[in-house]
Amino acid sequence: MNDEKTIAAIQERDETVISEVIAKYSRLLWSVAGIVLDKAGSAQDVEECVADTFIYLWEHPDAYDPRRGKLKTWLTIVARTQAVNRYREIARRNTVPLEDTDFISQLGIVDHILQEETKKMLLAAINSLGEPEREILVRRYYYGQKPKEIAKAMRMNVKQVDNRLYQTKQKLRDALSC
What we know:
Layout: H1 3-11, H2 15-36, H3 43-59, H4 71-93, H5 101-106, H6 116-127, H7 133-141, H8 147-154, H9 158-177
Helix pairs in contact: 2-3, 2-4, 3-4, 6-9, 7-9, 8-9
């Protein structure tokens, strides 16, 4: 059955056809979602992204346009979008308040014994950072992610991450030396 007939059958609520689509593409979509959620999500998160993709197909079969590509490609895009959204949700849930003094001690920017005033100045400087500098800093010094992991997660190259880290640490040093 070609993609157009498959979509037409799904539009007519043919459960046999949706079951065939699920059987045919589950492994592929699992791989796509798994790559996005690697080291961030659980197997359950990946499974939910795949399930959400098939639910989206069932509820919105008219969203697929056969003139723009194959059903397989469209499903992988939907699965990737589901996984990116899940990744962002996980990242938001795992956000740690910057007032956490363990975070400050891991920065390596100032001596390991910080006075309260210096801590306040550092927190103010960190809070004044824009994105993506702040996220890169938190990922590197709080979560201990390597620049390569940060680059992959934020869709940047490693050199950009290294440069942003260097520039951000310099900004923080300058803010503390005033």
